[in-house]
Specification:
The protein is mainly alpha-helical and 222 residues long. The chain folds into two domains: 80 residues, no CATH class; 127 residues, Endonuclease III, domain 1 (Orthogonal Bundle), CATH 1.10.340.30. 68% of the residues lie in helices and 0% in strands. The protein contains 14 helices and no strands. Helix 1 packs across helix 2, helix 1 packs across helix 14 and helix 4 packs across helix 5. The two termini are 22 Å apart.
């Protein structure tokens, strides 16, 4: 595996200096912080990510108080038990984004979250205890167990709640190719495994979290 230091040096140069680079980087939440978040907040953020996919984020954010009201403050048990009449009424609510696949994903995801909480104690505990050394495995589980969390939605959701994860943006993909990790943007299981291995190696080399490594890699090429 190629050393990450040359990419770090390039990112520092592009950012205008080491201090400027560090100002661009964020720190992931700790396991304790992730576990302290209530499941209703995770369901709210997950749902907001689902509705934001393909839409202007500021527009979704402006509408979110209405979503909080319509979905009973995203209490997972209450949402999981919403009736057909309640769901149909949401499609008539002009305050909301009336997109049925996304609307219907919320109760489905509430049910999935309750199942995860039964297994792990809470959804926050589940993602907190998932090792970052297998973050692509968590992406796969989110896609498998929850609705509308395929593609980049799962990773973006994790980033929004503070779970350490790298992101495969166009610039990150370009950096991975430049580093010889993959030949093209990683999407298949094999390429994702190689990408995870590379980030694990760079994390061991630098002591940095995945979120910072992917940001530095992106800055080094774009």
């Amino acid at each position: 595996m190629k050393a990450f230091q040359p990419r770090l040096d390039q990112a520092i140069k592009r950012a205008g200096g080491e201090a400027d680079l560090e100002a661009l980087l964020t720190k992931p939440a700790t396991a304790r912080q992730l576990k302290a978040v209530k499941d209703d907040r995770y369901l709210s953020t997950m749902s907001q990510r689902v509705f934001s996919a393909g839409l202007k984020h500021s527009m979704v954010e402006a509408k979110w108080p209405a979503f909080e009201e319509a979905f009973h403050a995203f209490d997972p048990r209450r949402v999981a038990n919403m009736t057909e009449d309640e769901m149909e009424a949401l499609m008539q609510d002009r305050r909301l984004i009336r997109h049925w696949p996304k609307i219907s994903s919320v109760p489905a995801n509430a049910n999935a979250m309750l199942s995860v909480a039964d297994e792990a104690g809470s959804f926050g505990a589940w993602i907190a205890d998932w090792p970052s050394s297998d973050i692509v495995g968590l992406w796969a589980e989110l896609k498998k167990r929850f609705k509308q969390l395929g593609g980049m939605s799962g990773p973006y959701f994790l980033r929004w709640v503070g779970k350490d994860t790298f992101m495969i943006t166009p610039d990150v993909a370009k950096g991975l190719v430049a580093m010889g990790v993959v030949d093209k943007k990683p999407t298949g299981k094999r390429d994702l495994a190689q990408t995870q291995e590379a980030f694990n190696s760079w994390a061991a080399e630098t002591g940095r979290p995945l979120c910072q490594l992917s940001r530095i890699l992106a800055l080094s090429v774009g």
